[in-house]
Write a structure and sequence with these properties.
Lipocalin, eight-stranded antiparallel β-barrel, 158 residues, alpha+beta, 2 domains, Copper resistance protein NlpE, single chain, Cu-R_lipoprotein_NlpE, 2 helices
């Protein structure tokens, strides 16, 4: 009976010695699994640090300018002022024409503080806020792409 006890003890000791390899493999598998999950999830769902978004990490207040595309004129020169109290003023002038528009309104932050949604009497647009730039978004909230994309970038005036 005593021999059986020592044999059982030896088997337990031997299996305990091989256990770290299994847990190491499990740790590596867990690490790989977590990395795969981070890569497969879209960036905006990765819980960004709320202390570092466009709303509170970028100097977004100020005056921005862009010349937007126009179907029957050389462009629409647009000046946009964003204020700290979350109001805006927009002035647009059709180049080579005597047509001007002005609008005022408010804006609210969307997408974890990375997008402003401007709402005025005639204005309803979304802009992604970047360092010294605003990128106008399409009606679905996506960045505008294609040949004219660069014309939908408002540059901050210093």
């Amino acid at each position: 009976m005593e021999k059986l006890f020592y044999v059982a003890l030896a088997v337990c000791a031997f299996s305990a010695c091989t256990s770290p390899n299994n847990s190491q493999t499990s740790s590596e598998e867990l690490k790989d699994s977590l990395e795969d999950q981070m890569v497969s999830r879209p960036l905006e769902t990765q819980n960004p640090d709320p202390a570092h978004n466009s709303q509170n990490a970028i100097d977004w207040m100020g005056t921005y300018e862009a010349t937007l595309p126009c179907a029957d004129c050389p462009g629409i020169k647009t000046v946009l002022v964003l204020r700290e109290d979350e109001t805006f003023e927009m002035r647009s002038e059709y180049l080579e024409r005597d047509v001007k528009f002005e609008d005022k309104g408010t804006f609210e932050w969307k997408n974890n503080g990375s997008v402003v949604h401007l709402k005025g009497e005639d204005t309803d647009i979304k802009l992604k806020v970047g360092e010294h730039m605003l990128f106008q978004l399409d009606q679905d909230g996506n960045e505008i792409t294609g040949d004219l994309a660069e014309h939908y970038i408002y540059k901050k005036q210093m």
